[in-house]
Amino acid sequence: MPRVVVTTAGGVRGRPAERGVVSFRGIPYAAAPVGVHRFAAPAPVAHWQGVREAREPSPVAPQDPRSGYGWRHDAGDDHLTVDVHVPADLPRDLPVLVWIHGGGWVSGSGSAPAYHPAAWVARGFAVVTLNYRLGFEGFGAVPGAPQNRGILDQIAALRWVAENIAAFGGDPARVTIAGQSAGAASVAALLCAPSARGLFSRAIAASITGETYSLAQAERVAARVARAARVPATREGFAGLPPVRLLAASDAVAQDLAADPDAGPRGAVPLLYHPVVDGDVVAGPFMQGPHAGGDPTVDLLVQTVADEWTLFSRSGFAPVARNFEEVAQFAVAVGLPASAVQEYRTLMPAADPGAVGDAVLSDGLFAEPSRRFARAHTARGGRTHLARFTWRSPALGGRFGATHGLDVPFAFGNPQAMEPFLHAVPVLPLARRVPRLGTRLRGVFPTPASVALSRRMVAAWTGFAADGDPGWASIDTEGVPVHVWGSRDSLETTPDPRERIWAGVEFRPFDQSAA
Questions:
Q1: Any catalytic annotation for residue 308?
Q2: Which of 77, 273, 327, 429 could form a disulfide with 254 if both were Cys (CB 3.0 to 4.6 A apart)?
Q3: pLDDT-derived band of residue 263, with 50, 70 and 90 as boundaries?
Q4: Is 404 a catalytic residue?
Q5: CA gap 288, 210 in Å, rounded
Q6: 450 Cβ contact list (under 8 Å, min separation 6)
Q7: Which residue of the set 404, 419, 423, 454 is catalytic?
Q8: Domains in the chain, ordered, with CATH?
Q9: Which of 211, 308, 368, 419 is catalytic?
């Protein structure tokens, strides 16, 4: 008989146990963001009478229908929800993992199959995954509305966990937040946000993205979206657009950016929305400034992958550098001097321009922001562990290597879910130029070595989330040691020489007028 749990808003009935897991899905943590709640801070959930069925995932947040996460304009509006997964015998005082999905701030779902947490639940965890507002709904600059609504949603979800997880058997004093890509940047933002303090005690951030917008830049983007939608750039004008029209207008602006020869990586993968430096929720870039590194009382585990950018360049979303002049253009676009390309070539003497370009963008957009955030957390007095994932996918003859996001199914104990995960990576608004990514990445199957690696990663991540110990030492101010995941693991005790290339680069909020 499915179990009924009483939350602060009413009773919920979960699914029958599967693989030892009882799941309660689609539980609202905030009111549906429609009507007066649209573009507003998340509002409390209205109480319901009786028992609410929590057997199926909620609708996903509005996003490009090509994303692969199943959004439909008629699917419903109640998407500010959580899924809760607990052991079938519902023990008490379990450590809690709260997972924040990635997707470039424009796509994704907490209910994606790659995040099925059976391996974590088997180790005695309560696992919560959540949805939050995406794209313009979550991060567009709307006059008179709060910025960073997607992050405000995440904070509301964490408050729901604090108030309700004990009813499901979780311990609200032992909450670890975790995420990958935009989800990892969300983790960094939450670590730095005063309004999130005290809602979690540990954090895991896999591949932190470094991009933030100035308020002026967010307003420029909003003005372009308004022009594309043919409405005034006012709260009333945007509120008059159904989500599907806002998505279409955002796509039109993204296509213009993709066609801009001077846009650099921002044109290669034209994401319009990023956290906005508003002086409130986001005080500045997460890896530098007085707030950098966030709350030092929170234990932190940061992880990167060896070949972050290949997910974009080797799938056809982004161009592959054809010569070293183009690599120099990539370098300048991410803040390096063109002369830095020679330093990469010296460290990668056998690499062709495509591989060097991939390395520059992997470092600039993911690896260096991640490493710098980790070092900043340590500098503030926090305990930080650092890891790098190097297992190379055999897909398409190894073209992708250890690509962006490939570590996620390993960390969830689902190496067999690599192929569905790669189907579900964020499909950016470029589908008119290239095939959907999921149609090109087939035939990735787990091997004994990858299964063993997944078990080691689950043990390390759950060990860290349970008691702060992943199995290797925390880093010093130079950012070592680094645990290296692969078919055979290792420990690096000297800094990566590529890091010194980035020593003088600052991560400022992007502002087109200053670019």
A1: yes
A2: 429
A3: low
A4: yes
A5: 10
A6: 391, 410, 415, 418
A7: 404
A8: 4-514 (3.40.50.1820)
A9: 308
